[in-house]
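Predict structure. Chain length: 250.
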Amino acid sequence: MRVLCLGYSRTGTISLLAALKELGYHPYHMAEAIKDASMDFPLWEEALRAKFMGDGPLWGKDEFDKMLGRFDGCEDVPCILFAEELINMYPEAKVILTHRPAEDWARSIGRVLGGLMSWPWGRYAWADPYLTYPWFHYLGVIVQCLNWGNDPKVMIDAYNSHYDLVRRVCPKERLLELELGKTSWEQVCGFLGEEVPKGKAWPRTNDGNQFLDWHWEFYKRARGMAVQKCATVGVAAVGVVGLSWYWWTR
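Prediction complete.
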């Protein structure tokens, strides 16, 4: 493990992910989790339930190594909910903390989550057991753990508590803080000991739009599978009724 990116979503995390990949890093992110959703999401749900709900044994380094061992970094949820554990378990890893004013963050994440939660996931998730259903089940748990409800004050308190925790636990020499919109290759490469990519501007992405785009694809996939399965059942039912009528009337 070389780098732990422990900033909240909507603080420039997707731009940082793109930058790390440009430098040759292979960080764990939700984009990786969805490649094996039926395995990764239930495991993260297990870890979250143990830590935040007292349900089951807490994860130790062996469990985190099994999940993250193929990667040299990690970023965003759910990893950030284990910030203290990861900082202590991987003392050789450097820590990057992206941030923005808490009030701005609360408005931004509220808009994104409002859009996401307005879609009727429960109506269709059952039809996709390999991606959408495990993600939907995990979503219900992580929303409780993050405490990102509808109350901006509660959200801001959760945000500030997370950043206070990282700053308190992480040795200063291991920590780089990056403010949204003010990040450069020189800052990141100097901290990580990497060469600055020549002729490359720092990635600028609107991770809120990308987040919604990703999940809209999940939603469409599940909805399409639900329609297909219902249609199949309907055709089969019509066939059974037709066959029964035939034998009854012949």
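Summary: The CA atoms of residues 239 and 245 lie 10 Å apart.
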